[in-house]
Amino acid sequence: MPRAIIIGNSDGIGLALTELLLREGWSLAGISRSPSPLAAPNYQHHPLDVSDPGFGTRLAEQVAAFGTPDALVYCAGMGEFLQAETLELERRVFEVNLLGAVTTAQVILPLFLRAGHGHFIALSSQGDRFADPAAPSYGASKAGLSLYLEALALAYRPRGVFVTNLRFGFVDTKMAKSPVRPFMITRERAAARVRRCLDTRPIRDTYPKRMAPLLWLLGGWRELRLWLS
Q: What is the pLDDT of residue 156?
């Protein structure tokens, strides 16, 4: 029976992925700030906040109790519009989107290396290359995450451990706050793409690909404005 840990799975893509893998017979441990709506004989859930200072220690304890999994999927994420007067939530966006994933990598990748196998997937965004003045912390945190994941992938792949940077466009979850959401997909389609990556183990997967040219054009227009300013 394959085994996985999913971080950030009480709703959204993480919940859909948990449901999908449970149907396939995986043994799962879920970790999120909120309780899980799921219950199954081969599922255990642990309430942890990835931005808590003790997250790394507590995650290591849970992994030790569960046993080194075949895969760990980091689905935790948040996005907030800029509050220009206070910048109140900017730091927390980085803590959840980037630093929580870095802490998770620090816990799980050495275990995978000792086991001689394992797959770490983290959900980034196609917004990682787009400077959005409405939500600067989101794109910046995802840019850091994407670059970090792909560098880790190059470092670990020769040693039999896989790291995947999965870059989604708009997914129909509570994080999709933009008034315009082109090519938005369901959380079930997103979960199916994560499942595909568990099999194919790419370094980078961008989905849906038709979103990329649109962001490239918008990014180019913004770069031109910056160049001319």
A: 98
pTM of the model as a whole: 0.90
Note the pLDDT of residue 213.
64
Domain CATH number, residue 72? 3.40.50.720
Residue 133's pLDDT band (cuts 50, 70, 90): confident
What's the domain range around 193?
3-228
- d(CA 201, CA 120) in angstroms, rounded, equals 9
Which 3-state string (H, E, C) describes the chain? CCEEEEECCCCHHHHHHHHHHHHCCCEEEEEECCCCCCCCCCEEEEECCCCCCCHHHHHHHHHHHHCCCCEEEECCCCCCCCCCCCCCCHHHHHHHHHHHHHHHHHHHHHHHHHHCCCEEEEEEEHHHHCCCCCCHHHHHHHHHHHHHHHHHHHHHHHHCCEEEEEEECCECCCCCCCCCCCCCECHHHHHHHHHHHHHHCCCEEEECCCHHHHHHHHHHHHHHHHHHC
